[in-house]
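Two entries, shown back to back:
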Amino acid sequence: MEGKPLALAVLLAGALAVGIGVFVLHAASAPPPTPERPRPPPPAAVMVHSDMRFSPVYYRTLIEQDSKAYGIPAPAWDDITQPNPYFDELKEKQHLRIKAPIETRHLRISMEISKVPSVIGGQALSADHLVLRIENRTPVYLAYRIQTSVPDKRKCSSKGEIPHNAVAIGPNQTILRTECLYRKDESVDVNRIEVVEMPALSAYYVSRLPPNATLYDPRTFTGHVGFRGQDSCQQTFSWREIKDGVDAKQFEWKDVIDFYARHNCSEYSFFKTYRYRTDTNAPLPARPLD
């Protein structure tokens, strides 16, 4: 009886050894796993190393290439590095009446009644609008912000739009923008007028900013078209961060505009510590570590 368990144990041990040997041989002869397919290379913009993008050589080359693409003379280096003159030209609200323009050092603002195509009650028609006429009185490019208000924005929701550059204006140029549908009791107040003088390339740069309600009123910004038509840059920054900074009064419109007056928004992103440039010797391009 004792020989049977021993024989059974020997038999089981032998079977186990054979099984392990077969598994090892199978594993050794099995083909290796299929390697992962190579991933496509990242976009060219991503492949540009940050150190290269922030080098003065790359920055100057970009300025020359962008000027050539826009068909305008490249600005002198001194024009890019010097402060862009900023003017807060109207700080107190003024009621704007037809045939009673407001004139500042740089702009002439007037109101007129004009027919503009719009959609009212589901029907397309040409309706009377209150139209703001903005005239650049100077021979230089300007970034501008004219903040206006109406008694009830909801009454303006179906107004038509006149395509216009809502960020920058050329030398001696006139821009028209709609404020609201015309009604006998409708009125427009001008709350603030801000202006920044800048080189031509800088005006082209800032006019490429995508429309957003952070810095401008959608009621007057919707018809925005840059100097090169619908040439808005891809959004490489957070409007939420900019809005939070503006709301907290950490920085303001002129700081954001001044940054993008010097930086192509397809290449560089505004950062919260940047301030309106006053030091001609500060490095360009600007970077958060500077």
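entry 2 starts here
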Amino acid sequence: MTNSGIYQPSSDWNSEEPLAAAGKFEPNPGYTRSAAIYDNNKTGENMAEDLHLNPLTGNPDFDGLIADFANLRGEDEMEAARMHIWEQFGTEGAVFISDMASFSSTSRKIGVCHFLKMIYRARQIIAPLIAENNGLLLKCDADNCYAFFEKTDDAIKASFDVNAALFAHNEDFGIAEQIYLSVGIDYGRVLLIGDLEFFGDPVNTASKLGEDLAIKAETLVTKRAIDQSTFDIPEAAERMVARISDIEIKYVRLPMTEIERKVRA
């Protein structure tokens, strides 16, 4: 859901400051564990049993590795476990995260049932277009959708195709029924857990772009994703720098223009 966020936008892409380095992923804030999992006297086996009750992903191999990792104390052991997790589940690609524009404010005015209906309609449009563009739709959570692509170009094309389809869909509805999407795209190393979930710095960054910065019918793509792309960025496209939660993000704004919409209609 769109949040205002505190950021300092800039159009200076010439700064020598590096992009925020890929770091430890931030666990899903919706995930909770039983108090017993924090008991230092618990064995790895018992912790794994507790985690089974509140799994991170539902993938027993990944969840078991994280449960074992949570019980380690030695630096060497933790580093070995961390490397093993990345060897088993690490990959590189483009992260696509979408958000329905104005969901929070207008759902309060009109009612949540109205927007649950709109979320349902949006998902029926988004899912097949993600697949058509070689993407893996991992999940939809409320008005957000999360997808993984091997190539940035496919992720960008999917964002345009989805927004074009929504524009066409909106022609049959009044203003209160119209759906608009904002999308954030980043590229880098992630932990991809089958077709269930992903974690990593690109997930955090794409989420901030799609949920905090992008406006309706707009795709924001990080510089490091653009660097992995053959997509022809228009000279007039805005190149921006933002700071959110002490993270610097360089990105380009790709709005769904009237020309793009008609080409894809």
